[in-house]
Amino acid sequence: MAAAIFVLVSLLARLIDWALQRRPLHPEAVTRYRVFRRTISAIILAVGLFSALLAIPEVRAVAGGLLASSALLGVVLGFAAQRTLGNFVAGILIALAQPVRIGDRVEYEGTHGVVEEIGLTYTFIRTGDRRRLVVPNEKLASDTIVNASIRGRETFAEVSVPVPLAADLEAALDALREDVAGERDAQVYVSSLADSATVTVRAVAADDVAALQLERELRLRAQKRLRALGVWA
Predict the structure, then answer these.
(1) C-alpha atoms less than 13 angstroms from C-alpha of 118 in its C-beta half-sphere
(2) pLDDT tens for residues 106-137?
(3) Which secondary structure element, helix H or strand E, spans residue 113, and what is its range?
(4) pTM of the predicted model, to two decimals?
């Protein structure tokens, strides 16, 4: 009987999780639902476990004694697991306040990455080299974090092009500006002068993936235009 109760409750938790997971949601709602899905599943499984135990007569007989000592047990467990409970509560606060969301581009303690997962106790940030930065939720909720996409996914695609100092910089800039005239908020300017001039070409992209693709195209287009102009032999 105890096993049957626990199996039924486990199936109920899976069913609710599946129903929540199928809903198409906005990024801010996805973050809330992922945290609350895990919270609801954990609560259902905990209730199911206690219900299964109470189905056993021997366990029900000592339930009164357990309830009488529950306050002391709660204090002991609270001290023993205060960091874990703190991370759990911080995860819920992150889901509600949403200083970070799944998919956001963030900088945390000098490390840049994308928020990949927000769990009940830890948040996973995927860095540019595909490693994962695992941050306790309690620390993430209390520390300062730079979020580059909290108001939107748009970002800049930016490439740097070296141009010899002997070349006509004005002609090179005009040619590159003409080449990116169709891009959104495009800019072409000289960003540095050293052994050669560095010309920066940038434009707005919809998200990180679009920015990466646009940067590849801008490099090829810049190379083709500058070779045609005679800047690069």
Answers:
(1) 34
(2) 888 888 888 888 887 889 999 878 889 999 98
(3) strand 111-118
(4) 0.52
